[in-house]
Amino acid sequence: ELEPLKGGETHVFKRKIERSKGGRNGRGASTFYINNQKTTAKEVQELVTKTYHIAVKNLCQFLPQDRVGNFSGFTPQELLVETEKSMNGNGQLYETHQKLIDMEHELKNSGSEVETIESKLKRLVADNERLEREKERMEEREEAERQLKLLNFKYLWLQFDACREAAKELKGAKDAAKEALRVQNETLQPLEEAHSLFVTQKQRYDARAKTLETNLKKAVKEQEKQYEKAEKHQDELDTTLSSLVSIETASRKTAQDIERAKEQLAKMEAAMEDLPSIESCDEAQKEASAEYSRLRGPFENAKRELVRAHGAIKDKNEEKNQKVHKLAKMNDEKTQRKQKVFATFRELQEISDWIDHNKAQFRRPVWGPIACEVTTKSNNAAASLEHHVPNATLKSFVVECKEDYDLLYSKIRREKNLPINVLIVPNGKLQDIDRKYSANKMRILKEEHGTSGYLDEAFTAPDAIIQALRNSAQVHNVLVGGTKTQAHIDSKGLLDFLGAPETEGQGLRGYCIFASKGQRSFRYTGTVSKYSKKLAMSQDELRGSRFLSPGVNPEHKKRLEDEIKSINAELLELERTHHELLSRKDDLEKQAQDAFARLRHAKETITEVAKKQKARERAQRKLRDLEKAAVSDSDDEKMKLVRAIQARMKASVTALEAHADQQRNIMKHTFSLAGVRINLDTSVAAIRRAEESLKEARKGHSEAQAELARVTKEFNDKKASMRQAKALAENEAPLEDAEGNALPLKAELEALAVSTLAETEAAMEDANAKVNGIDANPEVIRQYEERKMEIEIVKAQLSDLTESKDAKINGLQKLKGPWEESLDAAVAKVNILFSQYMQELGCAGEVKLTKGGDDERREGGDSSINENFKNWGIAIRVKFREGSKLQTLSARVQSGGERSVSTIMYLMALQSMMSSPFRCVDEINQGLDERNERLVFQRIVENSTQPPSPGDLTDHSGQYFLITPKMLPNMEGLDNEAMSIQCIINGPGGFDDPKDWNPNEIIRAGKRSSRDDNHEEEGSEEDENSGPSRMNEESSSKVPRKKKRRS
Known about the structure:
With 1047 residues, the protein is of the alpha/beta class. The chain is built from 28 helices and 18 strands.
């Protein structure tokens, strides 16, 4: 808020910054208000500059501490300009000075201006001739453009005509395809009917052939049977005849056969004694069968239980695989982190994709962005790293050689015009480092104060990324702690321990440490002032990590890992059960196999006993037959043999006749079957030929269908293209109006000497080449007319030029007089005050106005135009020691403290002549000794609090802001009612409510502390004499803050 000037209104300025509406750089969008009315930054700047005469960049009004050297390094000309700007309300000295410089420059150049205008006139005439030629070419180009436009319109209608003709051709092709398909349909139907008829005939022939084959097989079988009967009868006949011829021989042979039969029977009887009885074999078979039946049920149950166990193991494995896959996704934190980073910084996605697709162009690996390569060990570590490392570094890419740096920067920044930060880590290797703290101190920090280690130990990354973070963010010197660390910071002075020197002669040391308290985390940074050598601490509260934190909730991940462990345990139990069931099933299977083997052995034994018993019975029967034959009557035997021969002969003849009948049947069936098979082969051949014809016909039918579909699609597409071409032509180049009357464009298009697309394209290329051959300059005609008018004006100027020089000289002298008078008076006043202020310090000084035209006047130049206003300046000359001479203030001559004293005294001398409502200096007392600092402060207070004099530029003395991190005790002027002290205090030890600030309570606390130190009297005296100073010192030492200053 700016208080109103006399007769003016109060102005309240407000700036609203919305980070969410910012651009890529993240600076946010600003909205400005004046008296709650929305405005622009430009209007704010104009109001502040023109109405209040505030120039923030003017070092005479606003002097930062780091610009004191710049002020003393001003040349006399620069110092004059800054001084004039600060006195901008005094007759507008700065504007008048600049106008005098311009007028003098114009007068100096007026001697050659006639020649300049004459040459300008020649140049304009020559330029106008060139413009006239260009005008003619432009008219030619416009005609070519008109012709090209007409050709484009013609081309649209020709495209429509071409589409229409193509559609007509496709319509004919479509009709032909329909006719071809109809012919194919007519050809296909008879072939399918013939094929069906052939198949039916084949089926009938197949049935007839099967019947004949069956009858033939029966006849062959019956023939073989009759042949065997005939053979048997013949064999028996031969035997009977032989018996009849040699009955005596048979009798002797029978006796021999009886002996042999007895011997063979005896052997069989002996062998039968070694075999078990049938009853015992039956009993063994029943037992083995019962055992096998008993084992079969448990065996089948064991098999079913084994299948169920195998299914359970399979289900558990599938459940395990699903959870393992889910855990793998959770563990893929790099992919999740990439998604977060690319969502926040979208341009990094494009850069990363380009690098992935062009890896072969690089000599060594390219890493990054850094935020995607880092894996933090905890959420706190992620928040600490993200808070400590600048965004620009986290977005950086890392290369391992200069060639890759040049390639990446050239391709991304220059060719793709994308912002990119690139860091180089030679060969991608970690370098040896020196830790900030000794091993002993680090041990104490870990064991006693809960420090976990350095920040570069709280994450994992490739070596190149770690080295890049060490180089750019010093992560290897930053400490990471926890809740215990924060408690020791609050209660046990841990920060003092960190800043304390480790070796004798070593000064205070800066530090950076992270700690947490509950859900809140903080960063503490200690910086050693380069002036006071004291340690200043700042504290920041960390916000949650945006993209470096682990991508998965650790509790969810732990729960999933526990579930997998539980499934593994269940799998082990299931596999143990499966193994037991498998062993049980194998045992039952083995027992069943043993029982089955016994059963089979029993059956085989029974079979063998039965065979031997039958063989013994046959032997006994044979022996009985032989013995019976031996005792029979030979005559009776002979008669029996004769009758047997007769019967056998009759049976043999009957069998042979039946055999002949079956042979005739076989021949009959064979001939019939041969005929059927010939017909069947004929049908198969006919079917094959019909199938080939049918296949060919179906192929032709499919091709006809496909051709019809293709032609139909092309016809429809061409019709759509024709409609589109017509719509485009009617839209771009209509030939008729809404009532159907021809438009002039139709006649123009018909008049064109082209009738085909090829001719039109050639004509368009010629017209386009002609258009491109003449540079487009639509302004040439206007320039031609303006140039003609300018030539007339220049001719008039040339005649009037000489008449204006004297008037300009008179104007310069009139402007110079008041300006020089005001400037001389202002510099004289500043000189008096500056000399006075320097004498009060025991030094000497003067301010002198140097006029640049003095040298030229002595050389006999024209005094009317040789003032050389641009070289006028103000020289500050100072002397700090007896016996020395006054010397111009310079950074090469005076010390820093001397320059500071001279600068502030010069500003104090300007105080009453400044037009700005307030001024500001920053840490001007830094570098001053105690005496000069007190004198300077006294002068600032006196000049800033005195009422304005009658001759001052403004009706106020202006506000003066002195910003400093420290101040000497017992400074004079602190009790001035027109001065106020503002203590800026922040940090975790600050006040939650500003109303809690109680100076008296702080003073009483200081007194109590003094009494506790057994210095009651000294403490009481100090409390009475320097209470405010002690209050400020105590509050400054106890309250951590980002920035501590008093003004």
